[in-house]
Amino acid sequence: MEKPVLSVENLSLDFHLRTHILHAVRDVSFDLHRGRTLALVGESGSGKSVTARSLMRIVDKPGVMVGGRIILRTQGREVDLAQLASNSPEVRAVRGARIGLIFQEPMSSLSPVHTIGSQIDEVIRLHSGMDKRAARARTVELLGQVEIPNPAEMADRYTFEFSGGMRQRAMIAMALAVNPDILIADEPTTALDVTTQAEILDLIKRLQTERGMAVLLITHDMGVVAEVADDVAVMRFGRIVETGTVDAIFHAPQHAYTQRLLASTLKLEQPADARAEAVITPQPLLTVKGLTKVYGGAKGFLGTKKFALKAVDDVSLVLHAGENLGVVGESGSGKTTLGRLILRIVEPTTGQVLYRQKDGTEIDVTALSKSDLRKFHADVRLIFQDPFASLNPRMTIRQIIGDPLVVEGKLKGKEIEEKVAELLRLVGLSPDVMERYPHAFSGGQRQRIGIARALALDPRIIIADEATSALDVSIRSQILDLLLEIQSRLDLSFIFISHDISVVRYFCDRVAVMHRGKLVEIGPAETICTSPSEDYTRALISAVPNPDPRNKRMLHRTRFSALSTST
Amino acid sequence: MLNYILKRLVYMIPTLIGMSIISFAIIQLPPGDYLTSLLSTLADGGAPIDPATVERLRSQYGLDQPIWIQYGKWMLGILTRGDFGFSFEWNQPVSEVIWSRMGSTLAISFAALLLVWAVSLPIGIYSAVRRNSIGDHVFTFFGFIGLAVPNFILALTLMYVSFRVFGQSVGGLFSPEYVDAPWSLEKLWDLILHLWIPILVIGMSGTAAMIRILRANLTDELSKPYVTTARAKGLPEYKVIVKYPVRIALNPFVSAIGWVLPELVSGVTITAIVLNLPTAGPLLLRALVAQDMYLAGSFILLLSVLTLVGMLVSDILLALLDPRIRYN
Question: Where do the TM regions start and end (chain B) (predicted)?
């Protein structure tokens, strides 16, 4: 076998924090081969991103490289990057030219005040010494290669005129501008929709084959790994616990952590065992009729007509008592707005939301007065996506969970404390944590606190908006199981908004598919996920990565033709 | 872009009308008028006052008419003849009094602004990039001193030092022998010798504030992913910083143009009095005290216009600097 283009040997990195030194990466070794993809897998905090960045010597401030070798074999020479100063001309000649980098945030990884073209021109001119005109011609050619329509014209546009998928394409064009030998892709598709993710992964694969590059793919998504990787290295707490070919890792994992990681991924591939059958009553708990929300459309300055956007377009659905209804769709499909409209946090333009109260009478939420709306909000609660931003950092856990109870005003002092303790036990936390602040908790624990807060007023419906999207896979299934367990004990229904189809399939009885504000299809979760009747749903489902390298679903996906305009 | 500027110009019209009404109303607020304060000054001097003369003067100046008629006449004069009324105090048309002062005001404020930029830009970048280094702490220390020391105290200190150490004549913009002399190289040199104190004093707190703002903004920008992207391209470190995060952190610099004028006139009046500067601040103060209403009103109006123009200029520059503003 050909010598690897890059070898990392016993790499160690420390973070010098204020109080102590954190050993972020310990004795990590791996090889990158031309034409092959190595996936570095691990959960957040495992040190995978900082490992990747150290290959380019762009580790941020408190991080320090304390040992190891990074041997780059290109152009017939062998260089140990670890020996060079991080800002030396030799290292800068490697960055961008021999190693390209793309990373997660397509929204902020390009400068907002320079045109896309000028940012790509810059790399080309820096490393190849072309003049302005030749560099721009190359840029346009590259943008064409990453399938950006009208590349010559788009090169003069700014990043905010590009969608997330387009920005990631531009980023890839930039990383590949000088034909690097290695591409580092750090969570390149995590922030993208499944369909866009499939397209970007396709694109990387195609360019890799054309150029014979080595790719280092960093991800926490085992599905993506199974679809595109050749080799896998599993990282945990700064160490590589297992390496092997993708087939070996998926079908004969040796290390307990790898097995656990796979188990929690595979678990989400089928419906939960603990699902109680929902009772379909003739009288639904919540009825949504023709709900529409139009943004804009008003006349602007000098009578110019502003563009009107139908965020939610004539959506009708019902929710039965004890039922879990999933709402899936790509970003911009209106699923979050739908959740807000049901709660009337956002005023609907037209349409009705009918809610059946405990006594059996039906009320129209869209016509409620302020005080009645408050009562409605006690019955219907919201759980947010971001467990870090949704808890006030200056309030203790007792204040956070007790807040709805204080506002309601029925309970006093000691009673509130008892209720909070009970809620904490319900979500699997010890009541002892009551006096602590949110920063003391991990993401999963914070989401439990958010759930406890939502449960404080004994609600009947919970709207969970991407409630598990920010969590690692293993925590994700724990939280879903927690919600199911709570549901089996209390009289609860869920509206579960998510872009993650496997989560919805695991958790929900019925699924509604949304696309550009419209409800495309609604039906039992199994039917939607295995044999959907609409083309759009079929395209969406087939773009979901399958965590089995022997059955690569994504590469043989059906494409929805009307979709091509979106990226 | 043209559309944007046009839109901003159109929006300025109602603002200007509102401002003119408010400035006229403000100068009418204190009880009495120019004659009352003139009479009390005369009475203090023991001069006899003839009520008939008072009435004659009052109708001559139009002070016996209702306020809106006075306002209407004033506006009509400005719009049709460029006539801002007559200064009772100076016995001159207001426009002549103002223009002589406005030139020096603009010159000093512009020079102070340049000083603020020239000093705070490099220091701000240094402080943000080498955060918590010794250099940063030193600059921070002096920055806070600059923020905390009242301008007029600094002015007095500098005057004392330059008089004692350099034997310079201080105060005003020229030495006595050059005040009425025609322009010459010597006079220009004399002006420069006098100018550095007011510019330093006036620019000081602005510089300190700007360093803090730039440091905070740039610190936020430095950790953004696009900086990593630029670094991953293989750019040298100074270019990474100057071309990307600094460009975006520059917004407050440009915004500063808008408020530098009103700041100079209303904020540093005390400094201007201490330094005996022929700028607008002391003149406005005197006009207000003496109830020289047309002079005071014209000043307030003119300052409002300058502020609006400054805002417009800074907004246009911002739009040039940041395409996101341009396209919204």
Answer: 9-29, 106-129, 141-163, 191-214, 253-275, 295-321
pLDDT band at A563 (very low <50, low <70, confident <90, very high): very low
A469, A386 in Cβ contact below 8 A? Answer: no
B327 touches chain A (CB under 8 A): yes
- The reply to whether A403 and A461 lie within a common domain is yes
Per-position b or e across A225-248, b if 16+ CB within 10 A of its CB: bbbbbbbbbbbbebbbbbbbebee
Structure tokens at A293: 């929300």
Domain count, chain A: 2
Assess if residue A535 is contained within a domain. yes
Confidence of residue A281 (pLDDT cuts 50, 70, 90): low
Together in a domain, A197 and A297: no
Per the prediction, chain A carries an average pLDDT of 86
Q: What value does the mean pLDDT take over residues A127-143?
A: 91
Q: Kindly report each contact of residues A534-539 with a partner whose C-beta sits within 8 Å and lies 24 or more positions away, as own/partner.
A: A535/A560, A536/A560, A536/A562, A536/A563, A537/A513, A539/A195, A539/A563
Which is higher by pLDDT, B115 or A1?
Answer: B115
CATH number at residue A332: 3.40.50.300
Go through the domains of chain B in sequence order and give each one's CATH number.
15-82 (no CATH), 100-323 (1.10.3720.10)
Same domain, yes or no, for A293 and A224? no
Residue type, A114: H
Q: Is A95 on the interface with B (CB under 8 A)?
A: yes
In a domain, A211, yes or no: yes
Residue B150 vs residue B63, higher pLDDT: B150
Q: Looking at the predicted complex, does its ipTM rise above 0.90?
A: no
To the question of pTM greater than 0.80 for the whole model, the response is no
Kindly state whether residue A251 falls inside one of the protein's structural domains.
Answer: no
The domain containing residue A474 runs over which residues? 286-545
Query: Do B235 and A58 make contact, defined as CB atoms within 8 angstroms?
Result: no
Contact B248 A109 (CB under 8 A): no
The per-residue pLDDT for range A482-529, each reduced to its tens digit, is 899 888 888 899 999 988 888 888 899 999 999 988 999 999 988 888
Q: What is the DSSP code string of B226-295? A: HHHHHHHTT--HHHHHHHTHHHHHTHHHHHHHHHHHHIIIIISHHHHHHTT--SHHHHHHHHHHTT-HHH
Residues of chain B positioned with their CB less than 8 A from the CB of A158: 323-324, 327
